[in-house]
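Give me C-alpha cells for this 164-residue protein.
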Amino acid sequence: MKPTTVLAALVFLAGFAAGHVGLSTTGAFHPDNTHAADLAAIEKLHKADVDATLTQDPSALTVLWSDDGINLGFPGPPVVGIKDMGEAYAKFRAEYPDFKVLKYVPNIKEIQIVDDWALEVGFTEATYKMSAKEDPVSVPSTKAMRLLKRQSDGSWKFALVGMK
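Here you go.
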C-alpha cells in the first residue's frame, strides 16, 4: 500500500471518528462543550419559563422571548414581536387579575439543536384558576412544540411556541 493511500485512509478515519464523537444525541454536529453549554442555557430558559408562568409577571414572561418571537397560545391571531408580547401579557393580567397558575410542568421529550436554533417537542401539564372563586382547571398532556433562538450572549429565548 502506498504511503499516501495509508495517510488518506488515516485522515478519513480520524475525520469520521471526530465527527462521530462530536455528533450530539440530536444529530447535529457540535463540539461536546458547546452542546453541553447550549443544553445548560436551554435548561436555564426552562427554569425561567416555569418561574414566570407560576408568577404570571408580564415582564418576566416577556423577557423569555426573542425580539421577533411568535406566540400561538393567545386566543385569536398569533402574537408577533416582543412589544406585542408584552402588551398581550399585560392585557391578560389586567383582564384576569386573580388568574393563578397552580401547576406548570413542561415535559420536553426531545431537543434538536442546529446552529442558532433549537426545536423542542413534548407536552405540558398545568393546573390554573381563572379567579379566586372558581375551581381549579387541570390541563393534562397538552402537546407542545417550541422553537428556540440562540441570542448573541449565548442565552436562548423562545422564537415560536405552539400547543395543541
